[in-house]
């Protein structure tokens, strides 16, 4: 498998390629279906399977700071795409110049000339080129002109609604992390470096926490969650608070994870936090005793939730048994 940041980094597929293209934010089940169909079609026709995505996300270039946080940052997205083992993954550098290309200019430059594309697989609502003018009908016409076939896949429907990045973003923002699992094929997770916090968890409360340095990604709604924490290749159960710790009058948002029966020094290490289920909203307590009593109760609730087989997480970026899995 080749992971590249430009067409120039790869050798043009000798026998041609089968390409799918998109932002793939979240690499959800709809995206997984696209990639798997691309890999199968490529294999059946003796072509190279290619996944094309963009970095940064086009909205970051076109809308800038007004964009919502994304489900997956680029590194995590590329790792999730790689689980399906396409021959080539390309994360094109998206620029305003690229955004100004017509559908035909983009198709010819990057896909036909750059990748010798013979087949294309797109989602039910995909469009490319300036102003998203390159819809399915346009792409079919360009296929006849430039010698490639095109397949459009129907959406994935789960719980009577289309699986989409915006739906997942809404669920995570509402704290419905358990429901997101069905759409992603995995639990929602964030990653980050463990940094020094206010030193209150262990010293004042008796519940030491790993404080995560926040990046520009989507975090669940403020509150307390049952979690699984991946550190040094092992997955450990725990409970986390996302919010501003109103009992202490904080202003900044923080993510603090208490890992059960764990006392290792992990400052400076990168960890993954898998959000299993929201336990309650964040609230302000009258004193430390009330807060400690509530944390004890939250811990017991988290242990109960994490005792269910459905809450299990394997080490590494992966798709759970509810996902499509590698192609």
Automatic annotation (TrEMBL):
A molecular function (GO) term: FMN adenylyltransferase activity
Q: What does this protein do?
A: Catalyzes the phosphorylation of riboflavin to FMN followed by the adenylation of FMN to FAD.
GO terms for biological process, alphabetical: FAD biosynthetic process; FMN biosynthetic process; riboflavin biosynthetic process
NCBIfam families reported for this sequence: cyt_tran_rel, PRK05627.1-3, PRK05627.1-5, ribF
Q: Which UniProt keywords apply?
A: ATP-binding, FAD, Flavoprotein, FMN, Kinase, Multifunctional enzyme, Nucleotide-binding, Nucleotidyltransferase, Transferase
User: Riboflavin kinase domain: from which residue to which, for each copy?
Assistant: 183-307
The pathway is: Cofactor biosynthesis; FMN biosynthesis; FMN from riboflavin (ATP route): step 1/1; Cofactor biosynthesis; FAD biosynthesis; FAD from FMN: step 1/1
* Documented EC number(s): 2.7.1.26, 2.7.7.2
Please name the PANTHER family in this protein's record. RIBOFLAVIN KINASE, RIBOFLAVIN KINASE/FMN ADENYLYLTRANSFERASE
* The protein's name in its UniProt record: Riboflavin biosynthesis protein
User: Which species expresses this protein natively?
Assistant: Maridesulfovibrio ferrireducens
Task: Name the reaction it catalyses.
Answer: FMN + ATP + H(+) = FAD + diphosphate; riboflavin + ATP = FMN + ADP + H(+)
Task: Write out the similarity annotation.
Answer: Belongs to the ribF family.
């Amino acid at each position: 498998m080749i992971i590249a940041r430009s067409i120039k980094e790869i050798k043009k597929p000798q026998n041609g390629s089968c390409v799918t293209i998109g932002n793939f934010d979240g690499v959800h089940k709809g995206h997984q279906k696209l990639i798997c169909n691309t890999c199968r079609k490529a294999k059946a026709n003796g072509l190279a399977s290619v996944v094309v995505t963009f970095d940064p996300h086009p909205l970051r270039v076109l809308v800038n700071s007004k964009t919502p946080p994304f489900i997956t940052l680029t590194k995590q997205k590329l790792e999730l795409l790689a689980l399906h083992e396409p021959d080539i993954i390309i994360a094109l550098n998206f620029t305003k110049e690229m955004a100004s290309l017509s559908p035909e200019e983009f198709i010819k430059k990057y896909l036909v000339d750059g990748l010798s594309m013979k087949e294309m697989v797109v989602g039910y609502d995909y469009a490319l080129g300036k102003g998203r003018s390159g819809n399915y009908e346009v792409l079919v016409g360009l296929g006849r002109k430039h010698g490639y076939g095109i397949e459009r896949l129907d959406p994935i429907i789960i719980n009577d609604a289309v699986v989409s990045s915006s739906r997942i973003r809404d669920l995570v923002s509402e704290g419905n992390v358990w429901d997101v699992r069905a759409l992603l094929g995995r639990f929602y997770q964030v990653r980050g470096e463990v940094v020094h916090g206010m030193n209150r968890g262990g010293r004042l409360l008796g519940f030491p926490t790993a404080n995560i340095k926040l990046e520009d990604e989507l975090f669940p709604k403020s509150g307390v969650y049952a979690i699984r924490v991946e550190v040094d290749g092992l997955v450990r159960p725990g409970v986390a608070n996302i919010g501003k710790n109103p009992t202490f009058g904080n202003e900044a948002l923080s993510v603090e994870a208490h890992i059960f029966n764990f006392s290792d020094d992990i400052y400076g290490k990168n960890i993954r936090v898998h959000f299993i289920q929201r336990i309650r909203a964040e609230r302000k307590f009258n004193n430390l005793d009330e807060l400690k009593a509530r944390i004890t109760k939250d811990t017991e609730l988290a242990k109960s939730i994490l005792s269910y087989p459905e809450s299990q997480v394997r080490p590494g970026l992966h798709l759970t048994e509810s996902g499509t899995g590698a192609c």
